[in-house]
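Posting for a labmate who doesn't have an account.
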Amino acid sequence: MADTADVAYERRGNTAHIAINRPQAKNSLGPEQHDRMVQI
């Protein structure tokens, strides 16, 4: 799984698994996480 501090990404065949790890923000997306999701 490719990790950044808050967003983890793994591809399994035709499926992409994306995990948000921001418990302090209740796993909400901020601008940085949004930008990372767009990159993925």
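Reply:
Got it, the structure tokens are right above this. Residues 31-39 form the longest helix (9 residues).
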